[in-house]
Records
---
Amino acid sequence: MVDRIILFIIDSLGIGALPDAEKFGDIGANTLGNIAISQGGIDLPNLQDIGLGNIDNIMGVKAVKSPIGAFGRAIEFSNGKDTITGHWELTGLHLTEPFKTFPKGFPKDVIDELESKIGRKILGNKPASGTVILDELGETHMKTGYPIVYTSADSVLQIAAHEDIIPLDELYSICKVAREIMMGDNTVARIIARPFIGGSGNFTRTSNRRDYALDPFGQTVLDIAKQNGLDVIAIGKIGDIFNGRGITRSVRTKDNMDGIDKTVEYIQKSNEGIIFTNLVEFDSLYGHRRDPKGYRRALEEMDRRIPEILGAMKDGDIIIFTADHGNDPTFKGTDHTREYIPIVIYGKKVKKNVNIGTRKSFADVAATISDILEIPSTGKGESFKESIIEVPS
């Protein structure tokens, strides 16, 4: 019997444009493949041993004759390429209608209501890179005390404020007010608090980010696992993405390495069910900022710690390394890219050298988790349990 699934999200690590990428302006996107090409290769020996190089041609990550795990890729069924859509589909929900976006900024009545309720004027109100807008408006914010509101190609309203100008508790309260406003016809998937520190020309976002998401519109595999008495431990921004739904313990992290530290810590504890980790810096620091060199370095740093993760696992554990969307740092713009996600699976009960092929939905991951943990399914996706689990003879 498998006691635990470790679902490990390498945030934004797409592995090639989806067949419908043209609809999203993403033809040619390939986060991992293009990072490797742009950097003259990439060194990920531990993911390579499990089977990452057997999914696709990746410069520096070879296909091996006998991978120690199972491998494949998945198509996003839902209509979108954002964090919420990807994570919700991985846990068993399909979104046929994309979340609303605001490519020209938010309506005047929305801003007027927000200003009225928080007692402060607003700066910005336009699509922008989170670091660029700090360079543009950070100094004005420091002088006026007005929070900076901006959006992106995703369904988000982001609010940036200097921690010395608007204390964290107040920033979080402002975001909660924005969450109440951005419902109904103006519903967005997430309100994001973006605190920063530093001075003019040297503003730096901190790890005190908070996301205020919608409740999932249906039951996820997390809800079902919790209802069946299992642990659901959310590490990183997972708790925020699901608005706390289906979570038994939520653990915040400072950065990727802290996320790995916390994952290893909870693998070593006595719990049963799901450990669900997201390493957000691949997306936030390197994908959106179009930094392929930094992305490569961060991936190699993570890969060096995989033996530690696998070494902490118990005999009944299975780990699934995957992603939630793409964010090709060599591509145009600063937004997510519509891509396949890799699926790389390891555990003592996982068959070696198994190609699970191209899955029709990220929700196949949820269906497989339900199947392995012997709990009801959400009804979306097809399980690949029988392909990967060693059955005692």
Note: Residues 130-144 form the longest helix (15 residues).
---
Amino acid sequence: MQDLQEVIKLLSEEVFDDSGPDYYLLIDDLDRGWADDRIRYKLVRALIESIKRLRRIRKVKILISMRTDLLEAVFSNTRDSGFQEDKYEDYFVRLKWSNDELRDLVNKRVSFMVRDKYQPTAEASVRKLFDAKVDKNPMLKYIISRTLNRPRDVIVFINECIQQASGQEKITAENVKSAEAIYSKKRVDALTQEWLSIYPHVNTHIEFLRGLPSKFKVKDVSFEHIQANLLNYTAISSPQDHVAKKAHEKLSEGFKTANDGLDFVSVLFELLYKIGILGISQPLDNRIYFSEEGLIPFNPESISKDHRVTIHPLTFQYLSTRKL
């Protein structure tokens, strides 16, 4: 460790001194299968720890790009005694896209596609290609509302709309609706794969929302609904995440009313909030928040039966959600 400190000092004072240019090193694709998970998480944790020391080299900025699920998996699988996750917050910048940025991105991609495939000098915009309204909402607002405010989601939805309108001059509201049915299934599947390494039974957790309205209070979830969905966990012989383990615990204890199942529902809803498909009211202003807005932390103990809950529109078609 002493030798390492000397190397860092040498790099800072002699190699990357104040008279030279600034350097940026970007590390990406850490979620790819470049190593077995048993060692990959340890290597990524070591990388994060190394960057903390290398900050002394002021002319070099090292940036790691990774998804939230990978970061959580790293901390979950390398947690040791005395570990405090909040001490790492100063090193994180959580990327968020505004609606205006997403609209600009879509317009640029549509214009490029038209110029590339049809007319090199043509200028196209979403407004020219799509009908103005879908369910009384501006088209792009409708599309973005069914994403997790990520470019990939918007692009996948737009591509499905274009596919549905093959051979037509414009994309209609009906095309958007048809595309949404395909898109919703694809994005839920993608979200499941995204979190599978941390929550192996995430698909079973998502299925709990099937049959519920788009908006409700925690206390409105019926005893019959909880009971029926808890029975789905009996097919899991060896639960591997905390929600499935909680379900097995409730099944062994037994319960007679919806209130008896509140602790399971709270644990489940905290997870569904974290992965982005459930919004929960914040006690300070009673507004519904989704994790995509900045990951306001909830813990199961803080979710009461009076909390208001909203299912993300991304899942409406997949779950056949009744909109309120």
Note: The chain has a mean pLDDT of 85.
